[in-house]
Amino acid sequence: MRMTRQPYSGQRMPRKYSITLLLMLILIPAALLILVPYLWMLTTSLKVRGTTGLPPYLIPNVFEFANYLKAWKAAPFLRYYLNTGFVAVVLIFARILLGSLAAYAFAFLRFPAKNILFLLFLGTMMIPFQATIIPSYLIIRDLDWFNTYQALIVPRMIDAFSIFLLRQAFISVPRDYLDAAHLDGCSHWQSLWRIVVPLSRSTVVTMALFTFLFSWNDFLWPLLVANSEQMRTIQVGLQIFAGRYQTEWTYMMAGTVTATLIPVIFFIIAQRSFISGMTRSGLKG
Amino acid sequence: MDFQAGRSANWFTRLKNSDLPTAALFLLPSLVIMGVFNFYPVASVFFLSLFKWDNLSKIKTFVGLDNYISLFQSSRFWNSLKVTGEYTLVVTTISILLGLILAVILNNRFLMGKSFWRGLFFLPVVTPTVAAAMVWILLFNPGFGFVNVVLRSLGFDGLNWLADKIWALPTVMTLGIWRRVGFTFILYLAALQSLSKEYYESAEIDGANFLDKFRFITAPLLRSTTIMLVILGVIDSFLVFDQVMVLTRGGPANVTEVIGMFMYTSSFSLFKLGYGSAISVIMFLIVALFTIFQWKFVGFGSAEEAE
Fold first, then answer.
1. What percent of chain B stands above pLDDT 90?
2. Under 8 Å between Cβ of B301 and A162
3. pLDDT in tens, B54-73
4. Beta carbons within 8 Å of B306's beta carbon, 6+ residues apart
5. Is B296 on the interface with A (CB under 8 A)?
6. Is the preceding omega at residue B21 within 30 degrees of 0, hence cis?
7. From the list B118, B131, B300, which residue is nearest A164 (CB)?
8. Which of A89, A236, A241, B108 could form a cystine bridge with A75, CB 3.0-4.6 A?
9. Is the ipTM of this complex over 0.90?
10. Per the confidence metrics, is the pTM higher than 0.90?
């Protein structure tokens, strides 16, 4: 028989459990407040049509997966997915490409008016999107770009914050690496993609994740410039769908689950990168 | 003369030794896009705000500051500022308080399953606002919405939340808070985790209890994070649009019409583009002011720099 000879833990353990219990008493109700919307959305999306008004229950006794089929038939959610996914992927690559080029210039190249230009770029961070939306809308109109992918992509291909984040990561790359590469005859283009970007991988990943989240959740701009049935992105599609099936709660929630699922899955997979990226940059979602 | 020549030679050699061609090439794409979709629109919106221009018609009439004057005389404009102010105040304050409480709890060394809790409370941040707003419509449905069901089971009367002149704005606020807490909480948690344990240990030796430790060690050290969260929160809430658009469109009777919604309605429902531009300019000036505060007090939105 093993007698405990651990006076320290013998005294400590009960305290540990009582504190944990106390914390759980606060955390569990808080967690419920966070989770109720998800649970309600999920169960409603699986209820039999017309039973949402009955005495409410959280777990349906019949799982009506057909709601999803009907929602997907009533609105082209697949098309919305493809539109959103396409825009997101192009934006991610564009921001990595253009952002890295600009950040490299600001981090390593010597040229006149560099600081002024950098400040000018950073200055755009204080311009709220709603301040430029009317002129941007007019530009898209003049270019005849309504309901095109370029309207959703081109204005967003670069942003000051990506350049800023990348530059911060780039300047921590040891200068010696670059000097050595240049002695070996590497061009700036080559040292950017072979040395600087690979060494700044975590920042690039953070930026890609936020760009993905941004395009998946984006609403106002696509609503204004790409509102045809074929060109809608997922959030705009969901809003229009909800307007049409206002009282069909089961279908509406099936559509809502559809619009929520991808970012949530992404987050569960890449939780660590998301959270560390957000704490490092203080960036909003 | 000599001085002049020396200076220009210096300038010339500096240019010759610079990487100007490469830099120009590397910066060109960003400059073009920023130029067309950031710099030009800012200048343009100031310009447009001086015109009366309705329905995208061919006629633009120069009216000077008339748009601003009629804005300042419009009770709808002041109402939208008031609503935005209330929204900003409540959402920023409550989400900072709740985020701080959660962070302190999650920072406790005895708590188990930390990464699970952290992920759970962060989840709303990555949830699309439009989708969340759809669920809010359902939760606050007067008939069978979760909120009224719970209230009725407790013996209260339910309300038609989003159509109620008193309760519509608080209902919109709950969504803002729900989405914001994960953000404030995660930044506080990062700040707490960076605090040295030694402070706490020596305080414990001195007999400090939980509240003492919080008040005399944690709170002062969290000051910079708090300042950053206040400024970021104010900017973010000031620009709120998506949830208002989906939940109420500013109604009932404009009680939820935040300035972003007012700007959208004026510009893209009524197509009063000059007037809408004037609202845009005011939004820009207010946000720029707060951004300058942020840069002055916190740096470029970086939590690390904040510490």
1. 58
2. no
3. 888 888 889 999 999 999 99
4. A282, B191, B224, B225, B227, B228, B298, B299
5. no
6. no
7. B300
8. A241
9. no
10. no
Contact B135, A41 (CB under 8 A): yes
Contact B128 A217 (CB under 8 A): yes
C-alpha angle A194-A200-A204 in degrees, rounded to nearest 5: 105
Contact criterion met (CB below 8 Å) for B162 and B171: yes
Per-residue pLDDT, B225: 86
- Return the SS3 of B220: helix
Domain B66-306 has what CATH class?
Answer: mainly alpha
User: Across chain B, what does the average pLDDT equal?
Assistant: 87
Chain A residues within an 8 Å CB radius of B34: 121, 124, 158, 160
Q: What is the DSSP string of B14-35?
A: HHHHS-HHHHHHHHHHHHHHHI
Q: For residues B289 and B207, is the Cβ–Cβ distance under 8 A? A: no
Q: Do B30 and A16 touch (CB under 8 A)?
A: no
For chain B, which residues make up each domain, given as ranges?
A: 1-34, 66-306
Question: Tokens representing A252?
Answer: 């509406």
Q: Going from the N-terminus, what domains does chain A have, and what CATH number goes with each?
A: 7-65 (no CATH), 76-244 (1.10.3720.10)
Q: Which uninterrupted H or E stretch holds B104? A: helix B75-106
CA distance A40 to chain B (A): 8
The β-bridge partners of B52 are: B61
pLDDT value at B300 more than 60: no
State the DSSP H helix or E strand holding residue B120, giving kind and residue range, or none if neither.
Answer: helix B114-126
Indicate the range of A80-94, A211-225, B222-236 predicted with least confidence.
B222-236
> Could you give phi then psi for residue B61, rounded to 5 degrees?
-110, 130
Q: Is the pLDDT of residue B4 over 50?
A: no
| pLDDT in the model for residue B69 | 96
pLDDT at A282: 57
Q: What percent of chain A has pLDDT over 90?
A: 49
Closest CA of chain A from B261, distance in Å: 10
Give the separation between CA A184 and CA A181, rounded to whole angstroms.
Answer: 5
The stretches of chain A forming alpha helices (DSSP H) are 7-45, 66-74, 77-108, 114-123, 129-142, 149-153, 160-170, 175-183, 188-191, 197-199, 201-217, 220-225, 234-244, 249-269, 271-281
Average pLDDT (A3-13) is: 50
Residue at B152: amino acid letter: R
Summarize pLDDT for B114-127 with one digit per residue, the tens: 889 999 999 999 99
* Rounded distance between C-alpha atoms, residue B108 and residue B111, angstroms: 6
Handedness of CA B130, B132, B137, B138 (dihedral sign): positive
